[in-house]
Amino acid sequence: MDLDLEVDFDSSTITGTAVCRLAAPAGGGPLDMDTRDLAILGARDADGNALPHHLDEADDVLGSKLSVELPAGCESFTVEFRTSPGASALQWLEPSMTAGGKHPYLFSQCQAIHARSIIPCQDTPLARFTFTCNMTVPEALTVVMAAAPGEQKASAKPGLTTYGFEMPQSIPPYLFAFAVGNITGKELGPRSTVYTEPEMLEKSAWEFAEVEKMIVGAEEIFGDYLWDRFDFLVMPPSFPYGGMENPRLTFLTPTLLAGDRSLVNVLAHELAHSWTGNLVTNASINDFWLNEGFTVWAERRILENMHGLETKSLSAAIGRNGLMEAIESFGEGSEFTKLEIDGTGHDPDEFYSQVPYEKGFLFVALLEETAGREKFDAFVKKYIEHFAFTSLTTAEFEAFLEQELPGLAARVGADEWIHQPGLPANAPVFNSPRLEKLEGLAKGWKDGARPDVSEAAGWSPEDWQIYLQALPRALKGEDCAWLNENFNLNEQGNCEILCSWLQIAVNSGYEPAFERCATFLGEVGRMKYLKPLFTALHDNPDTRTLGREVFAANADGYHPIARGGLERIMTG
Q: Cα dihedral sign for 467, 470, 474, 476?
């Protein structure tokens, strides 16, 4: 696909053309593409002749099917289009919503099925494509894209600059990504540059300085890195996820900038996606665990290589807590607590959770534990090599597993893991002396156990996450006051710790934390923090009105993906 896109901040739209090149000449008849809220301005063949086309009525989840009638022998055609100001993949930020406060900002987020709101495409992981793109923007702004940069030149239109890009490796549509704003970069290693607004550059560069060490560690597990560059962009606060693994340009939330490198596991996760997810991709949202389960497993292997087994165990324990909360939220018998799900008729954003990540991780870890690390590592490398640049189903994975490691699936009970809801009894448990001490201390709270103030002052961020997650979900007001007064939790700079603390405080009705909760929800756009805190505010009758007020005050600043999920919580 050859794209030519022009960004208009005044109208919050992108106008463009997509030249679609077919793998083989058309046999004649309609070719169907996905769109959502796209205005289709025309379709023509390579000679400029208009092509008949039809846009179906919109489906609430899938959008509108575009059918273009192609003559026999057609090898390429062009679609002209314009996005909607409300395109679900795009967020347009006023200057006041950026770190610098002087320039507007635009970024995309296409996972799971939002690419169709930017370009007409076959918006499924099965339909991989290569592309070139020329993007024209105001000359004061810079474009970065998940693709190899090409020529930058002044546009024929005054005051505009055109940036060229090419993606030579095939990607699924959900990995199409770009950002436009006052963006600069700093090289961190032979294969990596960090990009962000100038105001956050030095802080970002320090936080992620060990990236090359991560890449080398990942290559030991998976084999050579095949995407040439592993650059990344630290986003504005409204970015709805921890990270997004766009090849050549990973997107990262600024909530990772804790100042102590305690949250760089997210970068390791997105790096691991360069193999599991980007090279080998799930065929549909039903198979999403193939992306995320393997990636969390690899992320923790990288952390183990860099920082030791205890760090991996603490990370796994934190993840398991998130998994159990997700299973409790859905209900143990829910379809969405399986690994392979049936998402027919559902918006993927509705059932996004920790299940494919953490249940998937535990299943892959069980496979490794049962087969033995050496044998399983060899399997993973062969799996990546065999399915590189393709998309596969869960059934295809199961067949390959049986072919390469006969009998392993039966020994671990793979059918229950993949096709049944809930968490099987043989799930691996990751223990360490540190973990046992922290969880034991938290579970003794009701019997009067308290952390030693001087000792807890030396706890790591992971220690605090484990401890807070293991405490009762609601405490007495005086107990909350003791924690906050001794450890200043309201002013915690690590967002993971702060979010865990604020959930307890809201559940407990601890009013001195309400104002910090409200301001925090205005500072971040990451759904990992927004969803549990707005849920806590909504579920407590004493804070429900506050929750609605905070949401109303900040909704316009949240990404459309996050806003939609929060609306469901606040009206539930």
A: negative
Look at residue 16 and tell me whether its pLDDT is greater than 90: yes
Residue 443 lies inside a defined structural domain of this protein: no
Question: Residue 438: inside a domain, yes or no?
Answer: no
Q: Mean pLDDT over residues 385-405, rounded?
A: 98
Which residue in the list 105, 195, 357, 510 is annotated as catalytic? 357
Same domain, 45 and 177: yes
Q: pTM here? A: 0.93
Please, are residues 276 and 255 in contact by the beta-carbon 8 Å criterion? no
**pLDDT of amino acid 214:** 94
Q: What share of the chain is helix, strand, coil (3-state, %, to 5)?
A: 45, 20, 35
Q: Are 27 and 72 in contact (CB under 8 A)?
A: yes
Asked if residue 170 and residue 144 are part of one domain, the reply reads: yes
Is 248 within a domain? yes
Q: Are residues 555 and 513 in the same domain?
A: yes
Tokens of 567: 């609306």
Which residues form the domain of 501? Answer: 449-571
pLDDT in tens, 188-208: 999 999 999 999 999 999 999
Return d(Cα 183, Cα 197) in angstroms, integer: 5
**In this structure, are residues 145 and 155 in contact, taking their beta carbons and an 8 Å threshold?**
no
Residue 167 and residue 215 share a domain: no
473 vs 435, 448, 507, CA distance in Å? 19, 16, 7
User: What is the enclosing helix (H) or strand (E) of 546?
Assistant: helix 544-554
Is 357 marked active-site? yes
**How many domains, in total, are found in the chain?**
4
Pair (111, 132) in one structural domain: yes
Which of the four pLDDT bands, split at 50, 70 and 90, describes residue 571?
confident
Could you tell me the CATH number of the domain that includes residue 217?
Answer: 3.30.2010.30
Per-residue pLDDT averaged across 143-154, rounded?
98
The residue out of 431, 463, 478 marking a domain boundary is: 431
What is the spatial distance between Cα 68 and Cα 81, in angstroms, rounded to a whole number? Answer: 13
Residue 120: which of 78, 160, 90, 76 has the closest Cα?
78
**Burial class for 194, CB neighbours closer than 10 Å (0-12, 13-18, 19+):** buried
The span from the CA of 480 to the CA of 466, in Å, is 17
CA 553 – CA 546 distance, rounded (Å): 11
Instruction: With respect to residue 268, please indicate whether it lies within any of the assigned structural domains.
Output: no
- Domain identity same for 202 and 143: no
DSSP states of 328-385: HHH-TT-GGGSSS---TTS-GGGS--SIIIIIHHHHHHHHHHHH-HHHHHHHHHHHHH
Within 10 angstroms of residue 143's Cβ, the number of other Cβ atoms is: 24
CATH of the domain at 341: 1.10.390.10
Closest CA to 44 of 6, 81, 84, 13: 81
- Rounded to whole angstroms, how far apart are CA atoms 81 and 55? 12
**Are 227 and 356 contained in the same domain?**
no
Helices (H) and strands (E) in the chain, counts: 19, 21
Instruction: Answer for the pair 322, 299: CB distance below 8 angstroms, yes or no.
Output: no
Burial of residue 406 (CB within 10 Å: 0-12, 13-18, 19+) is exposed
Residue tagged active-site, from 6, 207, 245, 270: 270
